Amino acid sequence: MAMYTFLEENDLSGRTIVPFNTHGGSGLSSTVSTIEELQPNATVATDALRISRAEVADSQSEVIDRLGEVVPE
């Protein structure tokens, strides 16, 4: 998976990682725990945004709201 390769090759120590994904039914699966394993010195938000493939078309406001919560102005 491209995201895991990126996390294996880059040191994000001291940073906050805010996972989000679209899915076909699996939700986050083990995404958060895998990120925590690959980046043990980063903070990983556990309340990741997950959007079902059936809801992607109507998710723009939800994504914008979440970004407003996690990105400082």
From TrEMBL:
Domain Flavodoxin-like residue range list: 3-47
Annotated Pfam families: Flavodoxin_4
Membrane-spanning parts: none
The protein's name: Flavodoxin-like domain-containing protein
